[in-house]
Amino acid sequence: MQRILSAIQPTGDIHLGNYFGAIQNWKNLQDKYDCFYGVVDYHSMTMPYKATDLRENTWKMAFQLLACEIKPEKMFIQSLVPEHTELCWVLSCFCSFGELSRMTQFKDKMDQLKNQDKDVLASSGLFIYPVLQAADILIYHADFVPVGKDQEQHLELARNIAERFNYQFGTEYFKAPKPLFTEIPKLLSPADPSKKMSKSLGEKHFINVFGDEAFIRKQIKSAVTDTGETTEGKMSAGVENLFTLLKACGNTAGLESLNNDFKAGQLKYSLLKETVSETLINFLQPFGERYKEILADKKKYKQLIQDSSAEIRKEAQKTLKEVRELSGLMNLKN
Ligand code: TRP
After folding, report:
1. Are residues 93 and 227 in the same domain?
2. Chain segment 207-227, per-residue pLDDT in tens
3. How many domains does the chain have?
4. Containing domain of residue 289, as a range?
5. Alpha-carbon distance 194 to 191, whole Å?
């Protein structure tokens, strides 16, 4: 079976952009490939954070992934597999300063940090973040990485690092991982459809998969529908976003009927919004139920994730042993 590695940062709640952009895909792939799904808490240290929040958010992400029906045996918590950081060090010696300086995500995050007026640290961890990501992928010899466009550059870097390591030591040891693009709906902020659905903009701007029903209804009710320039017969970004939500949640009948209304110039926003609200609430209900069950039995689920992390760690340890051998570092028997 071919291998897949993917990972998500523990940012707090999973929103619909995360779900339809990645997690749903993880779920569909988990039985077709040999999958490794990481909650990457080391990565989250690269921006300012609080220790208690990080640990809490890491568990939260793991539990929410379970509630999204990701199987526990596929999941690991990155800091429970510390070999990722060791491989990151080794790989950083095969990656140039110039390459890392060209990473667009690094430049974006540097700008974010500069815009915060308090004294914040632009760390070298942030700079080498893509090397840690390469380590996440290469440590399991992944064939494929399901990625969005924003991660393409990081994946290309991982391939370059793998090839350089191989060349340096005259081996074919690391596999060059390939991207796995899948069609994903582009979800926008309901409160500002000129922007992508995202947590960083604030709670109005993303729909929480595990959110409160009343709040979701309110969000849809006040969703912006009439901004942006529209030409006759073309949907505004906000209206299109509501249709995208219907489609993503699988309400094709509702979508068709409302689309016919639109084409006939008779679309009522109130009906569209009502339909979207009902569709979302129905779609999300089982997620909430599973999450509640998991939270009621936290100890059991923590143990499951710890056990699977320990199991996956064996794989990472094997790689590091081989990397030490190839690169001239010490193993105990040397
Ligand atoms: N950088 C990714 C993101 O921001 C998260 C990530 C870390 C990742 N390691 C990875 C994604 C390995 C794919 C593979 O979304």
Report:
1. no
2. 999 999 999 999 999 999 976
3. 2
4. 199-293
5. 9
294 token code pair: 């998991």
Report residue 134 as tokens: 């390469």
User: pTM for this one?
Assistant: 0.94
Residues 208 and 141 in one domain: no
CATH code at position 239: 1.10.240.10
25 lines ligand 1 (CB under 6 A): no
Residues facing 7 on adjacent strands: 38
Tell me: do 166 and 282 sit in the same domain: no
Atom nearest to 129 CA in ligand 1: 1
State whether 166 and 259 are in the same domain.
no
pLDDT digits (tens, 9 = 90+) for 136-181: 999 999 999 998 888 999 999 999 999 999 999 999 999 999 999 8
Decide if 159 is inside a domain. Answer: yes
Q: Is 273 a catalytic residue?
A: no
Residue 46 CB–ligand 1 contact under 6 Å: no
Q: Is 199 a catalytic residue?
A: yes
Q: What share of the chain is helix, strand, coil (3-state, %, to 5)?
A: 60, 5, 35
